[in-house]
UniProtKB/TrEMBL annotation:
GO terms for biological process: protein deubiquitination. Residues 783-827, 922-949, 1100-1119 are annotated as: Disordered. This is Ubiquitinyl hydrolase 1. Residues 514-1119 form the USP domain. SUPFAM superfamilies: Chromo domain-like (SSF54160), Cysteine proteinases (SSF54001), DUSP-like (SSF143791). GO terms for molecular function: cysteine-type deubiquitinase activity. Residues 1110-1119 have a biased composition (Basic residues). InterPro entries: Chromo-like_dom_sf, DUSP-like_sf, Papain-like_cys_pep_sf, Pept_C19_DUSP, Peptidase_C19_UCH, Ub_carboxyl-term_hydrolase, USP, USP_CS. It holds the Pfam family UCH. The lineage of its organism: Eukaryota, Sar, Stramenopiles, Ochrophyta, Pinguiophyceae. Gene3D superfamilies: 2.30.30.140, Cysteine proteinases, DUSP-like. It comes from Phaeomonas parva. PROSITE patterns: DUSP, USP_1, USP_3. Residues 806-824 have a biased composition (Gly residues).
Length: 1119
């Protein structure tokens, strides 16, 4: 992983306060907080945020379904969000309020003062991603542009020296270039061959974007898979290791860079305008020269391809007046070490041909690769305007404004040499163009003659030119549109322009068989575009040019025809036969301008995108210039056919477009009152149908069971449980499977080797994350909730304010903030109880009784026995041999500590666990100095089972829950007959610290792999393997599920006109008419009520739909 720097953890700096005070302070800071451009936010782990919410009661649950435990979290943490390739960057594809939480800077600073913070920390800026002036769409920029700056050596290749810079997309190009220059200059000053730190006066900065590719195609080069990020993608050209850093760039890689030129940097363009592609990275190269006359180091690499130019090569070239044109190489001549290339400008006579010396760097700059300086414009659709050449006078030809009337693919059998068709005189395809590849165009042009001129031309030939190449532009006529995906400079020339990525040029195997480039996580968009672009009814409408006459720019519900225009251009690129990959940048930007949901680069819902796109196209192409008011048609006893026809007629009064013609249908809705049987039948137009899936509403839950006998391995169990179940149901299932009393089971969530949550029985299963590890602890006796009555006279609240803390309320921390598992405020006295250390309920009358385990009993009656968590730790020396560090492994083990338990009893319990962790043979060898190969002394915390004395294998310490990984916070526990005194009011854990001697005899395989599969898990795995053999789900099943009669719930009641009240009516859907293009949306998500919000859960294990089973459509009613 690339390191971001040597920043250290930030310690807590403010005095501890009560949990309630923390919650109130944060609420005050969050009140009326709105996000504005430039605001600063911190990204933290959502797990940490949940732990803090439960500790403070910041979000009170709507019902008593989960513990507000008082478990004080450790320092602010975001370690699980770190990218696997760069420490200062977040993992890709993170989800807000699931993986991470955004905190305003003021809130983060307050929490950091109370808790401290571990590295790395992620501070991010809110930016306005709206591209149109006046629009505001502010988001937090989670993924700033990461640039890797490299210095170019004298040979034009990178020197292998790199530094990283993070750049906000809100920065202007000039500011971004300045920051990159600062980094590059500092690298030059520090070079070993530059003792005086002199920076050359002349510099140029180049960049190229680095995209991601699917992991299936990624290969490390030796047959091994390359490192894959968490989202299943591998970063291309992102070197990992010295060998890759020092590797020379190929000519193709070198040519992919774009120059930061002064003209572009002087504008107000931002990186957001420059980089229209999600989580993008930049490879940056800085080259220097000492004087103006010196050559640039990269010129030798950039110009190498020009020295190889030959007759027939296609290029862009600039004439003596500074105009760039498509050009052809007509020949080359080598004289006295110079190479002169004869260049012909396409569309111009040979008298304009020019000779360019490509060995001269200044002259060679007049040439670039094809379509670098001249945008690609030769993707055509019927109705496009071009300039047409009158071939009858080649010496001084006349050019006319023409329009494409017909397009044919290359190689079609029909004779293009015909001189007339339908009474029209047609000039045939000229002989010099017959051998050229590409589509054939029939162009009609208005000439000075009375009749228009019809002529066949080749789309790649010189008999047509881009509009206004020769003709003067008519300011009253709209400018011709450029190719949809063109305009993006790939950096082959000097001073490339800023634009969109153009995709990949080439000829697809068949028309339309092109790939769509992902722009961040936009596979949701690309999948829908592939489907819609291959729908013949719509695509032929656009490619045939018919859409132009239907554009409705006055429709207030439309997008002024912009969406229809950019979609038509997109289809030209897909079906034009000139691209193998198309980058839908223009379409995405247009959609994002009108719907901010799709303005970013995160994953979105594909069905929502499809609906928005088709609705937008419908409104842009709506043939109705005015929309009269219409009402829903009620049946009122009339025949269904009559009601449906009337409803469809009214629908067409407001909606009439190609989308309606082919994609709209009618759904019959039948409502029946549950009291008076009053019926209401209506017909509703639809664009797509959302079909429910007839699957069982279950979820697989994996549990790791820790037995009371710690010498036994954890058991992995799996159960298919109803999604609406609670964790109490899971406990009952475990009891049925194992015979363990459910009352003696405690379910916990373990994160970073620490119990962060103890679940109550009422906790909804829907609120357990799929990646949460549920650990079930079998205890020696049942944990009973403490007395939940209100503390008398506010004793709990008073204790919470006291630095030592009381033992019996709820909330707070034991070290200056009240008891985390005990004391709390009076108003919260009825909610929750301690988690890390908790116990059985004791009567108030026993308050005077001393508690040997937890210390002095409180007035509320502290529990008479406890349960503590054993945290497994390794004591390792720091590098250099100075001091120790603690490495934590495995889940904590929760054990019962009864009244009268001594320190020695706890040591004995740990030894019971060690019988599994420590290698028996190694331990015996270490205990017997005479054994062969044994150089160790007796292994024990003082004395082993055989009475041998020697170096301890482990030691026990008492540690605060929020300081358990810091050796300085550990208090040793001696193996004596004294009462065990880990106090719940201080929220302590018991650390089992294995020494170097203990680590030496540890069974590594047992520690890493020590989990036993329960038969339930094996049966579940077997069912998964057999899942493919089960009968698949057919569309008939889905339609049957849609048409099931069901009763409305309490939140969705219907008003009965006869009963004059809202009732839980019975509702039934039926398909009345289906369109030519039936769009089906399979509802793979279900929505379950939770404690704080409604949860969306994905349905898995669905089988395969069978399209052949479709309902028989009824004919669409005639308006």
């Amino acid at each position: 992983m690339e390191k971001a720097g040597g920043a250290r953890a930030v310690p807590a700096s403010e005095p501890r306060v009560t949990p309630a005070a923390e919650a109130n302070a944060v609420r005050e800071l969050m009140r009326n907080k709105t996000m504005g451009q430039g605001d600063q936010y911190h990204v933290i782990s959502f797990r940490w945020w949940q732990a803090w919410v439960q500790y403070t009661g910041y979000e009170e649950p709507q019902e008593d379904t989960m513990d507000t435990s008082g478990e004080r979290p450790g320092p602010l943490n975001a370690a699980e969000l770190v990218s696997p390739t760069f420490e200062a960057e977040l993992k890709p594809a993170l989800v807000e309020d699931y993986d991470y939480k955004l905190l305003p800077l003021a809130v983060y600073n307050k929490l950091e003062g109370w808790y401290g913070a571990e590295q790395p920390r992620f501070q991010r800026t809110a930016i306005n991603r709206a591209s149109q002036p006046g629009l505001v769409d502010v988001i937090v920029e989670l993924y700033p542009v990461r640039g890797r700056v490299g210095i170019v050596g004298d040979n034009g290749q990178p020197t292998g020296e790199y530094e990283y810079v993070l750049l906000s997309r809100q920065l202007t190009v000039a500011v971004a270039q300045s920051r990159i220059t600062t980094v590059a200059d500092s690298m030059i000053k520090r070079r070993a061959d530059n003792p005086n730190g002199v920076v050359p006066m002349w510099r140029r900065i180049w960049y190229k974007s680095v995209f991601d590719e699917p992991a299936e195609t990624a290969d490390a080069g030796d047959g091994e898979r390359a490192d894959v990020n968490s989202d299943g993608y591998v970063v291309v050209n992102e070197e990992n290791g010295a060998a890759a850093d020092n590797a020379e760039e190929s000519e193709e890689e070198a040519l992919a860079y774009v120059l930061f030129d002064d003209k572009s940097a002087s504008t107000r363009a931002t990186l957001l305008d420059l980089l229209d592609a999600g989580p993008v990275r930049l490879e940056i190269r800085a080259e220097y020269k000492g004087s103006f006359d010196d050559p640039w180091p990269r010129e030798s690499v950039l110009n190498a391809w020009k020295l190889r130019l030959k007759q027939g090569d296609e290029i862009d070239a600039v004439d003596t007046e500074g105009n760039w044109y498509e050009a052809l190489v007509m020949g080359r001549e080598e004289i006295d070490g110079k190479i002169n290339v004869k260049v012909h400008f396409m569309g111009w006579g040979h008298r304009w041909d020019d000779d360019i010396d490509v060995t001269d760097s200044k002259a060679a700059s007049r040439i670039t690769k094809r379509n670098v300086q001249v945008e690609f414009w030769r993707n055509f659709a019927v109705g496009d305007n071009v300039e047409l050449k009158d071939h009858k006078n080649n010496k001084n030809p006349t050019w006319y404004s023409g329009e494409i009337e017909q397009i044919r693919d290359e190689g079609e059998d029909e004779d293009l040499s015909t001189t007339s068709k339908d009474g029209k005189a047609i000039d045939p395809l000229q002989a010099e163009e017959a051998a050229l590849p590409g589509k054939r165009l029939l162009v009609v042009a208005n000439t000075s003659q009375r009749e228009p001129m019809y002529r066949w031309v080749c789309a790649q030939g010189e008999h047509i030119c881009k509009m206004y190449t020769h003709l003067k532009e008519d300011r009253h006529q709209p400018k011709p549109r450029a190719s949809y995906s063109s305009g993006g400079s790939s950096g082959y020339g000097y001073g490339g322009t800023y634009g969109y990525d153009s995709g990949t040029r080439g000829r697809p195997p068949v028309a339309g068989a092109v790939g769509l480039r992902n722009l961040g996580n936009t596979c949701f968009m690309n999948s829908m575009l592939q489907c819609i672009s291959h729908t013949p009814q719509l695509t032929s409408f656009f490619l045939g040019g018919e859409w132009r006459k239907d554009v409705n720019k006055d429709n207030p519900l439309g997008m002024n025809g912009k969406l229809a225009t950019v979609y038509a251009d997109f289809l030209k690129d897909v079906w034009g036969g000139n691209h193998t990959v198309v980058a839908p940048t223009g379409l995405k930007r247009t959609v994002g301008n009108f719907n901010p949901t799709f303005a970013g680069y995160a994953q979105q819902d594909s069905q929502e995108f499809m609906s928005f796109l088709l609705d937008g196209l419908h409104e842009d192409l709506n043939r109705n210039q005015t929309k009269p008011y219409t009402e829903q048609v009620e049946s009122k006893g009339r025949p269904d056919a009559e009601v449906a026809a009337e409803q469809w007629r009214r629908h067409l009064l407001r909606n009439d477009s190609v989308v309606v013609d082919h994609c709209h249908g009618l759904l019959r809705s039948h409502l029946t009152c549950c009291k008076c049987s009053n019926d209401s039948i209506t017909f509703d137009p639809f664009l797509s149908l959302s079909l429910p899936l007839p699957v069982h509403n279950t979820r697989a839950v994996s549990i790791f069971l820790l037995r009371v006998d710690l010498s036994l391995r954890p058991e992995k169990m799996t159960v298919d449980m109803e999604s609406r179940a609670c964790l109490g149901d899971v406990k009952k299932w475990i009891s049925d499977q194992t015979g363990i009393d459910a009352e003696r089971l405690v379910l916990t969530d373990v994160w970073q080797h620490k119990v962060t949550k103890t679940y109550r029985d009422k906790h909804p299963l829907s609120e357990v994350r799929e990646d949460d590890d549920i650990w079930a602890h079998e205890l020696a006796s049942a944990p009973v909730e403490p007395d939940l009555e209100e503390p008398e006279d506010g004793e709990g609240a008073a204790a919470a304010a006291d630095g030592e803390g009381a033992e019996g309320g709820e909330g707070g921390s034991g070290d200056g903030g009240g008891a985390a598992g005990g004391a709390g405020t009076a108003e919260k006295g009825k909610k929750g109880w301690g988690l890390g250390l908790f116990g059985r309920k004791k009567n108030r009358g026993d308050a005077a009784q001393a508690n040997a385990v937890g210390g002095k009993a409180s007035k509320e009656g502290y529990p008479a026995d406890q349960y503590v968590d054993l945290v497994l730790m390794l004591e390792r020396k720091n590098q250099g041999g100075y001091g120790y560090r603690i490495e934590v492994f495995g889940p904590p083990r929760r054990i019962h500590v009864a009244p009268g338990t001594t320190n020695a009893d706890v040591f004995a319990k740990v030894r019971e666990m060690n019988s599994r962790f420590l290698d028996t043979e190694k331990t015996k060898a270490a205990a017997d100095p005479g054994a062969a190969g044994s150089g160790a002394t007796a292994p024990n915390g003082g004395e082993d089972a055989d009475g041998a004395e020697g170096a301890p294998l482990f030691k026990l310490v008492s540690t605060l829950v929020y300081n358990y990984q810091t050796p300085s916070g550990h208090t040793p526990i001696e193996e004596t007959a004294e009462p065990f005194t880990s106090r719940a009011s201080e929220r302590r854990l018991v650390g089992v610290v294995y020494t170097a001697e203990g680590y030496g005899v540890m069974d590594d395989q047992e520690v890493r792999m020590g989990v036993t599969s329960h038969r339930s898990h094996e049966e579940h795995q077997a069912r998964k393997e057999r899942a493919g053999e089960r009968a698949s789900i057919s569309l008939r099943d889905c339609f049957s599920q849609l048409t099931v009669r069901e009763q409305l719930n309490e939140t969705d009641m219907w008003y009965c006109a006869r009963c004059k009240e809202h009732v839980r009516a019975y509702k039934k859907f039926d398909l009345w008419s289906v369109p030519d293009v039936l769009i089906l949306h399979l509802k793979r998500f279900q929505y379950l009520p939770g404690t704080y919000f409604v949860h969306r859960q994905k349905l898995e294990d669905l089988g395969k739909p069978e399209p052949k089973h479709q309902p028989k459509p009824k004919p669409k009613p005639t308006p």
